[in-house]
Amino acid sequence: xxxxxxxxxxxxxxxxxxxxxxxxxxxxxxxxxxxxxxxxxxxxxxxxxxxxxxxxxxxxxxxxxxxxxxxxxxxxxxxxxxxxxxxxxxxxxxxxxxxxxxxxxxxxxxxxxxxxxxxxxxxxxxxxxxxxxxxxxxxxxxxxxxxxxxxxxxxxxxxxxxxxxxxxxxxxxxxxxxxxxxxxxxxxxxxxxxxxxxxxxxxxxxxxxxxxxxxxxxxxxxxxxxxxxxxxxxxxxxxxxxxxxxxxxxxxxxxxxxxxxxxxxxxxxxxxxxxxxxxxxxxxxxxxxxxxxxxxxxxxxxxxxxxxxxxxxxxxxxxxxxxxxxxxxxxxxxxxxxxxxxxxxxxxxxxxxxxxxxxxxxxxxxxxxxxxxxx
Length: 375
Ligand code: TYM
Fold this sequence. Notes:
It is a single chain. The protein is of the alpha/beta class. The protein is 53% helix and 11% strand. It is built from 18 helices and nine strands. Bound molecules: ligand 1. Residues 7, 74-78, 86-87, 89-90, 108, 110, 113, 195, 208, 210-211, 213-214, 238, 240-241, 250-251 line the site of ligand 1.
């Protein structure tokens, strides 16, 4: 089956090289990585290991930075339920970028989008918005330089710029880019205009870290931005954190057992990984010792590589021992279980202490944004 990637669904085995060509984005080359490193001194693991693999105009962002014009960051979350670790991937990377460049960051919570897309109640979307905002703030952004806002709440400040953007987006564009049809409700038809709006919060160039499923929105933004007096946005795209059950596709909220949720306790993590994590090991210990495992298809190894083992030497050792058969599949899973549990425990500790209002109302950037009206 040919794969498909849309902002709402990923089907089949994603061929990322092909996706770059299909979406018309660019590959992140070694040259570009070195250009980033010139400013950041080191490279984040996800960038180093080609997990953030594609971009639009990232070279121009760096040129702007070198000229002293600066840039700003924007990312987001659709609050359709609790968050899984896949949702944290772009946020963790965004945090790294904010730390290295010290720039402003805007985070859009799209309660309207999720209400229009999903079969759900408004009050539930509101509850998840509040919960998600806590998880997002707990990632550790700079509270003075980060503004997290919910669409339905911030609408009053942005409506004038939103109507200008919406006027330039035709039904044919929405249909061609998102596959909307006669059955699509008119709320969702309008929504893409809102997702472009945060790219207009500053006159500087915007850089959006996200998984590549969100790119269709940036195509629309780039089509209209200059027509309304702004710069085309830049973006940096990640691959998908795979579900537990296999390295194809993306971890998705619609299959609870194949995701690790931020609220999963130690027992749940252990049980899920042992039961569901697709293994590249052999069926018997004897055979595994003789022939070794395959880290390329092993979900536990891939998760360590993407998110949970930053130390290249340690990862290499795990890979070599797994390939040779010295490390068994159960032992590899145990390494991952410990890493994830540590990660989640620390996340929840930060979450309990977090002052959400700093990000939504009282921090320096939040205060400024509530006083700004975008015409
Ligand atoms: P949402 O809530 O579907 O996803 C939030 C962010 O998580 C990324 N993502 C993943 N990344 C890696 N592995 C996965 N398995 C995985 N699943 C989801 C998504 O690409 C996204 O970056 N419409 C958006 C909300 C939004 C937004 C934005 C996202 C508004 N403005 C700007 C990114 C940037 C949404 O529903 O995201």
